[in-house]
Design a protein that fits this description.
The complex is a heterodimer of chains A (117) and B (114).
Chain A: E1 3-5, E2 10-14, E3 19-21, E4 24-26, E5 31-38, E6 44-50, E7 56-58, E8 64-68, E9 73-78, E10 87-95, E11 105-107, E12 111-116
Parallel strand pairs in A: 2-12
Antiparallel strand pairs in A: 1-4, 3-9, 5-6, 5-10, 7-8, 8-9, 10-11, 10-12
Chain B: E1 5-7, E2 10-13, E3 19-24, E4 31-37, E5 43-50, E6 53-57, E7 65-68, E8 75-79, E9 88-95, E10 103-105, E11 109-113
Parallel strand pairs in B: 2-11
Antiparallel strand pairs in B: 1-3, 3-8, 4-5, 4-9, 5-6, 7-8, 9-10, 9-11
The chains are: A mainly beta (117), B mainly beta (114).
Chain lengths: 117, 114
């Protein structure tokens, strides 16, 4: 069974500084890894994904994430934070391809990002 | 831009009543999901649906829950006899034609059970 952990409940960063939101995962097959963002009273929005290929993936709003197989991590990063980035961020994992346990995407507990002006 | 729509946005019901939450997924998507989120915290998987049948369900999705896609556009979640602990935000999501992996979420239906 797959699992995903976000070790930080909250991350605080000053505007203009780089930010990192951490995620580690566990799967039995090849991981499909995702980051989603949730603004207050809204649904989740897809930010980026890693399925295969380059370990550094780029996504929406200037976010990127680095897949590290040896550390089973997929940390979300942004070089320069904006106040508008303040939101709840979810890491998610799916175990392998569709039809081989790939029907279920599991989400981490979420990390609340506060960007201070 | 295509989007997933959910109704109602908020429903208040008495314990023991039946509730139906409705979703219209993105029109050419093939994979459908229900998740729930309690108090803005963890997003919990309930069920996935593909090719007109349940593909996978969690331990939360017991006999009180059911899903169907009655007319090829709507995707519904029914809770037969609601409990207090069913109070949550319920999110519908759909996945694309070629299963690229990412999910597209609706804005959610808030269920309050009194």
């Amino acid at each position: 069974a797959q699992s995903v952990a976000q070790p930080e409940d909250q991350v605080n960063v000053a505007e203009g500084n780089p930010l990192t939101v951490k995620c580690t995962y566990s799967v039995s097959g090849n991981p499909y890894l995702f980051w989603y963002v949730q603004y207050p009273n809204r649904g989740l929005q897809f930010l980026l994904k890693y399925i295969t290929g380059d370990n550094l993936v780029k996504g929406s709003y200037g976010f990127e994430a680095e897949f590290n197989k040896s550390q089973t991590s997929f940390h979300l990063k942004k070089p320069s934070a904006l106040v508008s980035d303040s939101a709840l961020y979810f890491c998610a994992v799916r175990d392998g391809q569709f039809g081989t346990g790939g029907f279920k995407t599991i989400f981490g507990a979420g990390t609340r990002l506060f960007v201070k002006a | 831009e295509p989007e997933v729509t959910q109704t109602p946005s908020h429903q208040v019901t008495q314990m023991g009543q039946e509730v139906i939450l409705r979703c219209v997924p993105i029109s050419n998507h093939l994979y459908f999901y229900w998740y729930r989120q309690i108090l803005g915290q963890k997003v919990e998987f309930l069920v996935s649906f593909y090719n007109n049948e349940i593909s996978e369900k969690s331990e939360i999705f017991d006999d009180q829950f059911s899903v169907e896609r009655p007319d090829g556009s709507n995707f519904t979640l029914k809770i037969r006899s609601t409990k207090l602990e069913d109070s949550a935000m319920y999110f519908c999501a759909s996945g694309g034609l070629r299963d690229t992996g990412e999910l597209f979420f609706g804005e959610g239906s808030r269920l309050t059970v009194l």
